[in-house]
Amino acid sequence: MFFLHINAPAVRNNIITIRTRTKNKFCAVVKANAYGHGLELCKYIDDLVDCYAVAWSCEAEALCNYTSKDIYVLNSDYDIGKKNIIYSAATKKDLLHKRICVKINTGMNRNGIYPQEFNDFIARRPLYTEIESVYTHFCSVEYAKKQFEAFDTLNFPVKHCCASNCMVLPTKYFKDMVRVGLAMYGYDYSLSPCMSVKAAISAVLSVKKGEHIGYGNFLAPVDMKIAVLEAGYADGLRRCENFFEVGGTVCKTVGSICMDVCMVDVSECEFVPKQAIFIGDRLKIDDVANRYGTIPYEVLTAFNGRNRRMYATD
Asked: What is the reported pTM?
């Protein structure tokens, strides 16, 4: 079990920085348990945001425990019967929701209707269905210009297309609202990262050369001092070589990563504290992502429900 220390004031400052640039409505994207930070974070930022976005209806149901503001459900899903939910509409059945935002496929080819289909599509809706907005999603900053030109041909009062890329795209792309995920948490565009990740050290052992460490066939190459950390692959740690900061020294894991624990070589540490740092001031989220051959999104969302989240408020 990791201990996730989340700095709510850092998130608030990131939101203020982004809003200062965009000067329009701010939609906080909190899908995948707020990118691993926990939906509880929303109660610390609710006064700064206009609305929220999640991927699925079950996430919207959970989010309603923390806000009464509008919530966008960005995938076609079931209706939870609450007035503050706005459902993404990309198929005929989606038009049956009372409040919808129409998804436009401008080139990402993930879901949505084509711009030229828009008028015919909305003409099929029941009289009770309110179209709150139309939106699209850019597949990359480099391709955004072409997508924006296709999106901007639509004539509708409320439109939105920018995500965290609003920090670098031209201001004309901002339209009526930005939907911000990763940048809000501070992991992009020189903003302030808001989370450090630590694991408790449950034991420090002396292991002789040739003795096993963990599952499999790993044998200590020399006499070693190892620390047993209470975090494993069930907590979001990959089954590969990982690094932790232990008492100011960067140490690597030895042996196989277990489901609930891992072992770290602390032979060079002068002092072994009660916790080891996985992500912090020295070991960054990008370091972990690069080592795993992936992106920060995947690292963050792998921190599942059994990890313990603690929110700093000042």
From this structure: 0.95
